[in-house]
Design a protein that fits this description.
Blueprint: H1 3-20, H2 24-43, H3 53-65, H4 70-89, H5 116-126, H6 132-147, H7 151-155, E1 162-164, E2 171-178, E3 184-188, H8 191-203, E4 219-221, E5 227-229, H9 232-245, H10 255-268, H11 273-280, H12 285-306
Helix pairs in contact: 1-2, 2-4, 6-8, 6-10, 10-12, 11-12
């Protein structure tokens, strides 16, 4: 892959980060999307300057052949559109070949939530491990379900997100979360989450070498001796292990499904949609409204199964 192309990608990502405050996870995804396109471009023996609309259409078609979901294809097209706009803006190209590239329509994707009983089972089983590692994992699991945090928000929580009562010193029933685009929001904690969080703070120092300090609530020592935060991948490993221990299939449980479960269960219990929107950190209410579709779908099944006239045949 040409070095100058890679430099262009790095410059593009730096612009997105500095000027548009694009989240790190999105930057990583966009980088992979554009580098993947460069591989395709090299297979066609074309340079970036020779890229036209027809080549982009061929690339998108190939993505469909590789069984990418409409959602993934939409993101890849979005990345390419913005990348080519950047090249035009910086006068590397005179016009963007992606300007009229259409994105496939995404169908309604209903979140797959766990049942309340399944969530309760997972949390109860996690409490069986009373080691420092076990307490840390249980704390993160409790926080995930109590707040509906994104996994990226959970692992990057800072110690300063926790507030204490000025008189009693007890942990307050809320934390401050930095979400997408650097937007900060307040999320509430239940009593169970507060209790395990207090227990975890007593053992938090065990995850750092003596004398070290860090801003991260969930620190983790790197191989080079530096302190960072626990990674999403590592937390996912813990969740998969718990899933197997609970007798579930490994893929049944994920941090994202726990977030969906939080929102679905809140709605089932009568929470206002706007409140759920604020707690989830959705900038657009349409992102939250999908949960009403889930509730409607479940209500339809319940009506068919439980309605007193459902088993009677009408002539």
């Amino acid at each position: 892959m040409r070095t100058d192309n890679i430099t262009l990608v790095e410059d593009f990502l730096e612009m997105l980060s500095a000027e548009r405050c694009v989240a790190d996870n999105t930057l990583i995804a966009y980088k992979g999307d554009i580098l993947d396109f460069f591989v395709f471009l090299s297979e066609t023996s074309r340079s970036l300057e020779q890229c036209d609309y027809n080549i982009l259409v061929s690339y998108v078609t190939k993505l469909g052949d590789r069984s990418y979901s409409p959602k993934s294809i939409r993101r890849k097209i979005s990345a390419l559109r913005q990348f080519f706009e950047f090249l035009v803006m910086t006068k590397k190209l005179t016009k963007s070949p992606a300007a009229y590239l259409e994105r496939p329509k995404s169908g309604l994707s209903l979140p797959k939530a766990l049942s309340k009983e399944e969530i309760a089972k997972l949390i109860q089983l996690s409490y069986q491990d009373q080691t420092a590692l076990g307490v840390r994992f249980t704390t993160m699991l409790e926080l995930l379900y109590a707040t509906g945090l994104r996994i990226s928000e959970l692992v990057t929580l800072k110690l300063s997100a926790i507030e204490r009562n000025a008189i009693t010193g007890g942990i307050q029933n809320h934390i401050f979360v930095s979400g997408k685009g650097g937007k900060e929001r307040l999320v509430l904690l239940n009593e169970s989450a507060i209790a395990i969080l207090g227990k975890y703070l007593e053992v938090r120092k065990l995850f750092m070498k003596e004398g070290r300090s860090t801003q991260w609530l969930f620190p983790s020592m790197k191989k080079n001796g530096l302190v960072s935060h626990l990674t999403r991948q590592r937390f996912t490993q813990f969740i998969k292990k718990l899933a197997v221990f609970a007798g579930f299939e490994r893929n049944k449980i994920s941090s994202h499904k726990i977030r969906h479960s939080f929102a679905s269960h809140m709605l089932e219990n009568g929470a206002n949609l706007r409140v759920i929107q604020e707690l989830l950190g959705h900038s657009d209410i349409s992102s939250t409204q999908i949960y009403t579709k889930v509730l409607k779908k479940d209500a339809e099944k319940l009506l068919i199964k439980k309605h007193p006239l459902s088993k009677l045949k009408m002539v």
